[in-house]
Amino acid sequence: MITYKDSGVNIEEGYKSVSLIKDHAAKTLQSYVLNNIGSFASMVEIPEGYKRPVLVSGTDGVGTKLEIAFKKKKYDTVGIDCVAMCVNDVLCHGAKPLFFLDYIACGKLEAEVSSDLVKGVADGCLQADCSLVGGETAEMPGFYAEGEYDIAGFVVGVVDKSKIIDGSTIKEGDVLIGLSSSGPHSNGYSLIRKLIPDITTDFNGKNIGDVLLTPTKIYVKPVLKIIEEFNIKGMAHITGGGFIENIPRMFKDKLTAVINKNSFPKPAIFDHIISLGVDETHMYNTFNMGIGFVLCVAKEDADNVIKSLKAKGEDAYEIGYISAGGDGVCLK
């Protein structure tokens, strides 16, 4: 008799995986989640306090940073990256992340590995104050190589319609405030892997593979508090495309973001990448260069916003300003 297991799909390992995953997800569930993991669908009610709630959604993955996790056999941080890439995006419009779902695909399921991946997702959800309400784990032998996984996620957030941040009030003279990143986050890793094929070497006293696996920062909690305190005109998550592509996404009009490259510290890994032959301007079109999230505020609010962010434990810097014209980003 031929069974599903003979084709490469181990149902029992799937059951084991689900059992391990449930414990991680349970830690994230908040009162607005109406059912537990295991149903055919998840049910979430919009929390009280919103007059005209607008749902804000986003989806993303981790990309080729996963290959470093495979080589290191360390799987419990890339789930944080997956959450961060999604929740930081919806945060740009002032939305509070409500719930998250993940999708994991592999060639051969190992319950402990999938559990570690979801543990990272759960850790990210706790950092973002949102609930992990479900997901899918797909075992696809012959499609993915054994030992390789892919992970992606989907988040839904909520914001009052009157409080949506859309950049419509940004004008010449406004100030740009940058929040520090933890490193490359989850962008540019195809280039990084080409330049740094050996992840076992030392880098400033640490294993460079561990440095490259540093999780993406999640900005949800401090930024949502700042939104309550100040008039934030626009926000940008510095992801793929770096400064050049992402900062102009917060503008409604033809404006220019003038960035002072010397106004904030750069993690050493970026200088190392430059030393391997990458042009500095290209770096700002690929990586976050040390700034993972940008706020646009009126000039008179800038100092107080920075002080408040620092009081919340964030490294924040005045990194530039808005000028007239439609040049996107000007690096000085």
TrEMBL record:
<dbReference type="GO" id="GO:0006189">
    <property type="term" value="P:'de novo' IMP biosynthetic process"/>
</dbReference>
<dbReference type="Pfam" id="PF00586">
    <property type="entry name" value="AIRS"/>
</dbReference>
<dbReference type="InterPro" id="IPR036676">
    <property type="entry name" value="PurM-like_C_sf"/>
</dbReference>
<dbReference type="InterPro" id="IPR036921">
    <property type="entry name" value="PurM-like_N_sf"/>
</dbReference>
<comment type="similarity">
    <text>Belongs to the AIR synthase family.</text>
</comment>
<dbReference type="GO" id="GO:0004637">
    <property type="term" value="F:phosphoribosylamine-glycine ligase activity"/>
</dbReference>
<dbReference type="InterPro" id="IPR010918">
    <property type="entry name" value="PurM-like_C_dom"/>
</dbReference>
<comment type="pathway">
    <text>Purine metabolism; IMP biosynthesis via de novo pathway; 5-amino-1-(5-phospho-D-ribosyl)imidazole from N(2)-formyl-N(1)-(5-phospho-D-ribosyl)glycinamide: step 2/2.</text>
</comment>
<keyword id="KW-0547">Nucleotide-binding</keyword>
<keyword id="KW-0067">ATP-binding</keyword>
<dbReference type="Pfam" id="PF02769">
    <property type="entry name" value="AIRS_C"/>
</dbReference>
<keyword id="KW-0963">Cytoplasm</keyword>
<feature type="domain" description="PurM-like C-terminal">
    <location>
        <begin position="171"/>
        <end position="328"/>
    </location>
</feature>
<dbReference type="GO" id="GO:0004641">
    <property type="term" value="F:phosphoribosylformylglycinamidine cyclo-ligase activity"/>
</dbReference>
<dbReference type="GO" id="GO:0046084">
    <property type="term" value="P:adenine biosynthetic process"/>
</dbReference>
<feature type="domain" description="PurM-like N-terminal">
    <location>
        <begin position="54"/>
        <end position="159"/>
    </location>
</feature>
<protein>
    <recommendedName>
        <fullName>Phosphoribosylformylglycinamidine cyclo-ligase</fullName>
        <ecNumber>6.3.3.1</ecNumber>
    </recommendedName>
</protein>
<keyword id="KW-0436">Ligase</keyword>
<dbReference type="GO" id="GO:0005829">
    <property type="term" value="C:cytosol"/>
</dbReference>
<dbReference type="InterPro" id="IPR016188">
    <property type="entry name" value="PurM-like_N"/>
</dbReference>
<dbReference type="InterPro" id="IPR004733">
    <property type="entry name" value="PurM_cligase"/>
</dbReference>
<keyword id="KW-0658">Purine biosynthesis</keyword>
<dbReference type="GO" id="GO:0005524">
    <property type="term" value="F:ATP binding"/>
</dbReference>
